[in-house]
Amino acid sequence: MGSPDPSIRCDTSPLAEFLNVDQDGEGTCRVSIDPVHLSPNGTMHGGALFTMFDTAMGSAAARHLAEGQMFVTMDIQIRYLKPIFGGVVEVRGTVLNPGRRIIQTEARATNGGRTVASATGSFVILDRERPTPG
Length: 134
Known about the structure:
Number of helices: 2
Radius of gyration: 15 Å
Oligomer: single chain
CATH architecture: Roll
């Protein structure tokens, strides 16, 4: 693994699309909070923010793959620092260590200029194999 290849962009995630997360394919995603993102107490649901972290860090990691490789999430640790009541949430993911088999990442979520959560994640690199249906 070397430096990121700027021509590689992560495919759009159907779950992120469902949650109306705007992705740039390079490690940043944004969402304008609406009712689908809220928990019963009126703050952004932790699962929606988790999806944003997974999407942003995964997009950053994807830029370090070689031809014929793919990755899957191995683990993500999130620190929820402040509740999010509305507005726009932006998550920026970066690669800390692009290893040969594991890519280590980090990300920060902001809302109104404040850091509201941070995360680290690891992604396992696999050879791309498509299962045959049936």
